[in-house]
Write a structure and sequence with these properties.
The chain is built from 23 helices and two strands. The protein is mainly alpha-helical.
Length: 498
């Protein structure tokens, strides 16, 4: 909807206009963007979407995608505010690149996880596989690309065809991986990560065109701030959850860290395949982490900085925070709050600005030491939580739920006698995808693998089903699965919004 006589979807911020926007903290275009995202039903649903472990699985209040997004927004806004008020060379570089408006960064952070499907990353991988193998959708499914599709196509505010009708600034700021599938190359995320599907590429390029000094494949400065903030929040708030749940055993973690320090000289000479085949041996997993960082991010990976990061995390997390089990007392809460606040403040202050960053970095990034520390913090979850057999069993069950839903809706739409009674929103999403594929066939036929009407409709049906299942909460997915299988009598209060 137009504001101040302008269509915010067409609003562009060029470098020469930066000062005006930096002064206008309350600029109505960006404020409207934030509120449209916050009032979106896709944003509300994040309160019932798994972050890493679900609330029902953990048996206590853990972070979900909504609480994570709120905290990412807080971290991002603090970083952007700091950068926008500085008067040094870093602030001048940011200004030339298009600015770091705190409200734009806040909006992007609030929106960055909208595309996550039920059951966290497990759901993302499952829907990607089903999209490609069952429906022949070459681009599959990706949470970041789904976020952009929601903002610009699937969600609507007041009129059809323009999504939430957001400014170019905010749309560009959510493009963490500004390319289509398979085009990432050596950039951050590689070929597996991407931020828009072919049907949404025109809109994404229009948004990025507002930043002429940002190189092809690079994030805007505001996007890189959001990306850093996501890393900071993820590394610390998930640690918060696992500490509260008692899932991080200090003795096990300490053994891994001490063995790596003790055997470092020997580990550096061990064959990579041998290390990978025996990750249960203490020290091996940390050494594999170092080798992965060195291989993928040689532009910043440093052996001394990594060693310092391991020592700091060992001292402050393993021998510090985790040494006293969380018991729910006020003392435990204060200790955890002090730990988290201290780390966030230090990481927020460890920001650098680069005019010409490495392809795997952004214009705004963590400094070398902080970058290694975040990598080691993430390692704690990846090695000691995500690889737990009990979590794997639970996730395989969740994957089966999504598989049955996709199969059930596909069979329903294949039924000529009953397809018309399918959920209205599902039918709408299939029609919307059909419109998108027809437009893409006309505008960029080389991006559509098929051209017959029947085959195009099959692609649209697949994309519509994936869009629909991805928009469910964890509980809705489980409930719908039971309804489609005839295993529930809770009909009228199922709350599916069918």
């Amino acid at each position: 909807m137009p504001h101040d006589g302008l269509d915010p979807r067409q609003t562009r911020r060029m470098p020469e206009a930066l000062d005006e926007f930096q002064r206008a903290e309350g600029h109505p275009h960006f404020r409207v963007d934030v509120e449209r995202i916050r009032f979106s039903p896709f944003y509300s649903r994040l309160s019932a979407v798994t972050q890493v472990i679900s609330q029902t699985g953990a048996g206590l209040a853990v972070h979900n995608r909504l609480t994570h997004s709120i905290k990412v927004a807080a971290v991002a806004r603090a970083i952007a505010t700091h950068l926008s008020t500085r008067t040094d060379e870093a602030s001048r570089i940011v200004a030339e690149l298009g600015g770091a408006h705190p409200v734009v960064v806040q909006a992007a952070a609030a929106a960055h996880d909208l595309g996550h499907p039920p059951f966290g990353h497990l759901g993302e991988h499952t829907l990607d596989r089903l999209a490609r193998t069952r429906f022949g959708l070459a681009e599959g499914f990706e949470g970041n690309a789904q976020t952009y599709r929601i903002l610009t196509r699937l969600d609507e505010h007041d009129r059809p065809g323009v999504g939430l009708n957001l400014t170019a600034a905010v749309r560009a700021a959510v493009l963490k991986y500004p390319w289509r599938r398979g085009l990432g190359g050596i950039r951050r995320g590689g070929a597996s990560k991407f931020s828009y599907y072919a049907v949404d590429e025109q809109d994404a390029r229009q948004a990025l065109a507002a930043y002429p000094l940002i190189a092809e494949g690079q994030q805007t400065a505001e996007c890189s701030i959001m990306d850093i903030s996501d890393d900071i929040a993820y590394s610390l708030h998930d640690l918060d959850d696992f500490y509260r749940a008692g899932l991080l055993t200090p003795a096990t973690l300490s053994t891994e860290f001490r063995a790596w320090h003790r055997d470092l000289a020997r580990l550096r000479d061990v064959d990579h395949e041998f290390l990978a085949a025996d990750t249960r041996t203490p020290g091996h997993s940390l050494e594999l982490l170092w080798r992965r960082l060195r291989s993928k991010d040689g532009w910043i990976a440093d052996a001394d900085a990594f060693g310092e990061a391991v020592a700091k995390v060992g001292a402050e997390v393993i021998d510090g925070l985790l040494a006293e089990p969380f018991d729910g007392s006020l003392s435990s809460e204060r200790s955890l709050a002090r730990f988290t606040t201290s780390w966030i403040a230090r990481l927020q202050s460890s920001i650098e600005v680069h005019r010409n960053p490495d392809a795997r970095s952004g214009h705004v990034s963590l400094n070398r030491q902080a970058w290694h520390e975040v990598a080691v913090l993430k390692f704690l979850h990846e090695r000691f939580i995500l690889e737990r057999p009990d979590l794997t069993v639970y996730q395989r069950g969740q994957a089966s739920v999504l598989e049955r839903l996709v199969s059930g809706f596909a069979a329903w739409l294949d039924d000529p006698l009953d397809a018309r009674r399918a959920p209205r929103r599902l039918l709408d999403l299939v029609q919307l995808a059909a419109d998108d594929y027809r437009r893409l066939r006309n505008d960029a036929p080389d991006l559509v693998e098929t051209h017959t009407a029947g085959e195009l409709q099959a692609l649209a049906r697949g994309r519509g089903i994936i869009d629909y299942v991805a928009s469910l909460t964890d509980a809705q997915a489980v409930s719908l699965d039971a309804m489609l299988a005839g295993r529930t009598e809770r009909l009228w209060d199922a709350g599916q919004g069918l």
